[in-house]
Amino acid sequence: xxxxxxxxxxxxxxxxxxxxxxxxxxxxxxxxxxxxxxxxxxxxxxxxxxxxxxxxxxxxxxxxxxxxxxxxxxxxxxxxxxxxxxxxxxxxxxxxxxxxxxxxxxxxxxxxxxxxxxxxxxxxxxxxxxxxxxxxxxxxxxxxxxxxxxxxxxxxxxxxxxxxxxxxxxxxxxxxxxxxxxxxxxxxxxxxxxxxxxxxxxxxxxxxxxxxxxxxxxxxxxxxxxxxxxxxxxxxxxxxxxxxxxxxxxxxx
Length: 253
Ligand code: PEP
What we know:
The protein is of the alpha/beta class. The longest helix is centred in the last third of the chain and has 19 residues, at 182-200. It has a single domain, classed as Aldolase class I (TIM Barrel, Alpha-Beta Barrel), CATH 3.20.20.70. The chain is built from twelve helices and eight strands. Strand 2, helix 2 (48-55) and strand 3 form a beta-alpha-beta unit. It is globular, with a radius of gyration of 17 Å. It has helices at 16-28, 48-55, 82-87, 98-103, 108-120, 133-137, 141-152, 158-161, 182-200, 202-205, 221-225, 242-250; strands at residues 4-9, 37-42, 61-64, 92-95, 124-129, 165-168, 210-213, 232-235. An eight-stranded parallel beta sheet has the order 3-2-1-8-7-6-5-4. The protein binds phosphoenolpyruvate (PEP). Phosphoenolpyruvate (PEP) binds next to strand 8.
């Protein structure tokens, strides 16, 4: 079975003390993950080491970064490299979140460099794609997300693409309380898998987890995650509330 993942994206929220308490509250629920399930906590950089040590004894729970820089090292004040993440035991990183594409002008080609640097440094990219409302209203969502994948991922050989995770996050559903219906999510995930299959063959496409993100909540996670091609979720707002995220973890297939 493909990996099923619940990934928390805390963004720029919580003090260190609040972050520690939230992690404790979630881990205290004692949810044992199966071999094919994983939980990721994408926390602000200053909390990565604390997160890593909190999850150390918990099989299949991992810390993750929310971003890394698109250069390997050098005079880039304030930036963090994929190599640095790996050196502190952080082996997952969100790449290309729509907020980074929008507010920090990240392009497909910069994201390609980030993906490469992550893979070179044994950091698994959680690669985000997704269309805006005008793009969906114009019926161009499939072409749009396909070009995000081809622009940043399709240079990878088969043995590398197998390492990544994809998160489909329609921008109109992020932080808006407006979730894609399970039918819309399944339709897009199925399309993304077919695009991967055209490029790499079905065996590889069937291995790559595709998470859904966009107002995943405790009360809709089960229905979304039950879709054949939805392999869990990338969760913003609801991952900041212990009980809600606990219920989202338990909704994994
Ligand atoms: C996100 O930021 O990746 C996200 C999906 O946020 P939310 O769950 O709040 O919509």
